[in-house]
Design brief:
Radius of gyration: 20 Å
Enzyme class: transferase
Helix content: 40-55%
Strand content: 15-25%
Number of domains: 1
Oligomer: single chain
Bound molecules: S-adenosylmethionine
CATH superfamily: Vaccinia Virus protein VP39
Number of helices: 12
InterPro entries: LCMT1, Ppm1/Ppm2/Tcmp, SAM-dependent_MTases_sf
CATH architecture: 3-Layer(aba) Sandwich
Family: Belongs to the methyltransferase superfamily. LCMT family.
Function: Methylates the carboxyl group of the C-terminal leucine residue of protein phosphatase 2A catalytic subunits to form alpha-leucine ester residues.
CATH class: Alpha Beta
CATH topology: Rossmann fold
Keywords: Methyltransferase, S-adenosyl-L-methionine, Transferase
Strand order of the largest sheet: 3-4-5-2-1-6-7-9-8
Shape: globular
Order of helices and strands: HHHEHEHEEEHEHEHHEHHHE
Length: 331
């Protein structure tokens, strides 16, 4: 067979594989793997000194090399800004209610915010993390594995009880395996965490809602407003999605079998506002990551971040930050 035929065959095969993946469980598998990317990028940025996290080393693969494109300073700055912004919103919320408040993290991946809060003596009533069972079971293994210099179990109020390999309950910390798109499965699993529906509760979705259809994420938000008396929501995801930047990103993700089913909600601040207001949230603030970087976050910290790896030009960073946003919504 000549080389052209081989290459066109492999093109066809790749296209068929992508189409198959997009409508099957392997689509979910590819989405779950985005957690590995986020963890490795955060681990890389932390090692560079962008921020301090004593816990991520338990979850990251310290021997894996981060792809060159993910080692650009712009990428590390973006990860720093998103982590810092979410942490600031959550800490502010917990302080506002003197710790008598709960945190629920949807699509938590290997996020370490629970440990960062507890180790800094932040007060909270309950912390619940949710992800696909295949992700939570891995997270549980990392939490419980012996050895290492940091013992994650030390942060728990009581001994960890694991069920079905995918759920862990330990005092005020809970990690549960559930598909956020499956309403009754999610509600059943959340019920095992005995959340108090009457106290203030902040929900986090860091790069998660975009993987679900707009209808599904909208009904998830509506359910929260109807079930919790004082919910707040901090959402980080793509933004300004109708230009070439997003098309290239979509194409790259598509080649890895990842579809962004909820991208239409990320088009503009108006779309985000509409989604949260329709779900019953009364106040909705949308900031793109340039605003987060230059106004919302501590400017001494921003100055320190800028020194770590000096950029020759700001255009790429500004372009990247313009395509992500944080939404903070309250009832
Ligand atoms: C890009 S990763 C982000 C992980 C973490 N929030 C962070 O920012 O480091 C997306 C996460 O959302 C989870 N996720 C996406 N769709 C989900 C669903 N329908 N149900 C449960 N988890 C989901 C994935 O498994 C993955 O862990």
């Amino acid at each position: 067979m000549d080389s052209e035929a081989i290459s066109s065959d492999s093109h066809v095969a790749a296209a068929i594989a992508t189409r198959r993946r997009s409508n099957s469980v392997s689509d979910d598998y590819s989405v779950q793997r985005t957690n590995d990317d986020a963890t490795q990028c955060k681990y890389f940025a932390i090692q560079k000194g962008y921020w301090k996290d004593d816990f991520i080393g338990r979850f990251a693969n310290s021997s894996a090399n981060v792809a060159e494109a993910r080692r650009f300073p712009e990428i590390s700055m973006g990860y720093w800004a998103r982590t810092a912004a979410i942490e600031k919103y959550v800490r502010g919320f917990l302080e506002e209610f003197d710790g008598n408040a709960q945190v629920v993290s949807f699509g938590c991946g290997f996020d370490t915010l629970f440990w960062r809060l507890v180790s800094s003596d932040a007060k909270l009533a309950k912390y619940v993390e949710v992800d696909f069972s295949s992700v939570t079971s891995k997270k549980i293994r990392h939490i419980l594995k012996p050895g290492g210099s940091v013992d994650l179990k030390k942060s728990f109020e009581s001994e960890a009880v694991v069920s079905h390999h995918a759920d862990l309950h330990a005092g005020n910390y809970h990690l549960i395996g559930a598909d956020l798109r499956q309403t009754s499965e999610l509600e059943q699993k959340l019920a095992t965490c005995q959340l108090d529906h009457d106290i203030p509760t902040i929900f986090i979705a860091e790069c998660v809602l975009v993987y679900m259809s707009s209808n599904t994420s909208s009904s998830l938000l509506k359910n929260l407003v109807s079930q919790f008396r004082h919910p707040a929501f901090v959402n980080y995801e793509q933004f300004r999605t109708s230009d070439a930047f997003t098309r290239v990103m979509e194409q790259n993700l598509g080649e890895r079998g990842i579809q962004l089913h909820g991208l239409e909600m990320c088009e503009s601040a108006e779309k985000q506002e509409e989604r949260f207001r329709n779900a019953g949230f009364k106040s909705v603030k949308v900031m793109d990551m340039n605003q987060i970087f230059n106004q919302f976050l501590d400017q001494d910290e921003v100055a320190r971040i800028r020194q770590i790896e000096m950029l020759d030009e700001m255009e790429l960073l500004e372009q990247l930050l313009a395509h992500y946003c944080v939404v903070f919504a309250r009832v």
